[in-house]
Amino acid sequence: MKLNSIPIRLENCSKTYNQKTQVLQPTSLAISAGETLVLLGPSGCGKTTTLRLIAGLERPDPGGRIFFGEEDVTQQAIEERRVGMVFQNYALFPNFTVRENIGYGLKIKKIPPRLRKVRVDELLELVHLTEHADKNIAQLSGGQKQRVALARALAPEPRVLLLDEPLTALDAKLRETLRTDMDLLLKNLGVTTVYVTHDQAEAMVLGDRVIVMSAGRIEQAGSPRDIYFQPKNRHVAHFLGSLNCLNGFFKDDAFHTHGGHIACPAQAAGLPEVFFRSEDAMLVAPGQSTLRGIIANIQFLGERTRVYLQGVSDSVVCVETSNRTNYQTGQEAGLLIPQEHLLIIHKD
Ligand SMILES: Nc1ncnc2c1ncn2[C@@H]1O[C@H](COP(=O)(O)OP(=O)(O)OP(=O)(O)O)[C@@H](O)[C@H]1O
């Protein structure tokens, strides 16, 4: 199944509720045809509001405009915009069967029953629910309900697919499976998609581009690799991955390096902050580095181990390692950080 896709453009869109709280600051944003754009950020940062503006469930403040292709849809109601929406809580009709739920939008559009059946069968296959077609919604698992919701949203061939935390209500294992299914599906459909989540792994896997938001504004837009490896500021850096600060270990842009690794950083203040990601540091014998600490805590996760070191920086730092050494708390350890893995972020 392939859907037609169109670009979307938001021009200077802000949103103020109750004439006082501006929850979205003036935002301009272009989404390419067929792109999957993920809006990522903490609760309350304005992701859902942005999605609702695109859907036509909210209007932007005066001056803001929204385009689907060249068409100005700012004043159009949701029905006119031809968008498909999927919500966290499914919003399915509980007394309908799977088939009836998926076909609902087609019935409203007065598509003849024979054609409707063909289309619903195709969608059932697409979301792997053919054998559950005649079950009631109550008989389905959470993951199956979400697949019905997705098929129902796709049935009327929307121009744009809008997904608001569709996997949040599911348990971790199922989320991971559905995330992979969703990724394949979106790539095959080729429909312009806006996907809201606060889960960074979901954002990385699904997004062609990720927009990191905080406090009603866009902090950074870029490919998953860009925002992960080149965060523009500390909001973005902290929101992605596990980050450690090397407080006060940076001076006059002079690193004392040891075979390309930071081994003896100098003390200073008032300069950019230096961070490193937990997976980018290596634990070595204390004698192999002048960055040393005492192991304060260990979390064994199976495929990797998190080791927390005290005394390296002002606060405890976390190192993630996949080696199989049986570290012990109280043990002294050295830390090496490849210089190219340091994140140097200027204070904002
Ligand atoms: N109808 C409304 N009236 C007043 N305030 C609202 C309304 N809808 C949302 N808000 C407020 O706008 C802010 C942004 O909400 P929004 O739902 O866009 O955030 P979000 O990033 O999607 O968060 P979450 O992940 O929790 O849904 C929040 O402070 C919220 O309380």
Q: Mind sketching the topology for me?
A:
Layout: E1 8-17, E2 21-31, E3 36-40, H1 47-55, E4 65-68, E5 71-72, H2 78-81, E6 83-87, H3 98-108, H4 113-126, H5 142-154, E7 160-164, H6 172-189, E8 192-197, H7 200-206, E9 209-214, E10 217-222, H8 224-229, H9 234-239, E11 243-245, E12 257-258, E13 261-262, E14 273-277, E15 282-284, E16 292-300, E17 305-310, E18 317-321, E19 332-338, E20 343-345
Parallel strand pairs: 3-8, 3-9, 6-7, 7-8
Antiparallel strand pairs: 1-2, 1-4, 4-5, 9-10, 11-14, 12-13, 13-19, 14-20, 15-19, 16-17, 16-19, 17-18
Helix pairs in contact: 3-4, 3-5, 4-5
* SSE string: EEEHEEHEHHHEHEHEEHHEEEEEEEEEE
Distance between the termini: 46 Å
Low-confidence stretches: 250-258, 263-269
Described by the principal axes of the CA atoms, the overall outline is globular
Helix content: 25-40%
* The CATH architecture of the largest domain: 3-Layer(aba) Sandwich
Total domains, how many? 2
CATH class placement of the largest domain:
Alpha Beta
What is the name of the CATH topology of the largest domain?
Rossmann fold
Number of strands: 20
Task: Quickly count the helices.
Answer: 9
Enumerate the distinct ligands: adenosine-5'-triphosphate
Residues in β-strands, percent: 25-35%
CA gyration radius, whole angstroms:
24 Å
The largest sheet, given as strand count, sense and whether it forms a barrel, is: 7 strands, antiparallel
Structural class: alpha+beta
What is the mean pLDDT?
A: 88
Protein name: Putative spermidine/putrescine transport system ATP-binding protein
Domain ABC transporter: 8-240
Keywords: ATP-binding, Cell membrane, Membrane, Nucleotide-binding, Translocase, Transport
GO molecular function: ABC-type transporter activity; ATP binding; ATP hydrolysis activity
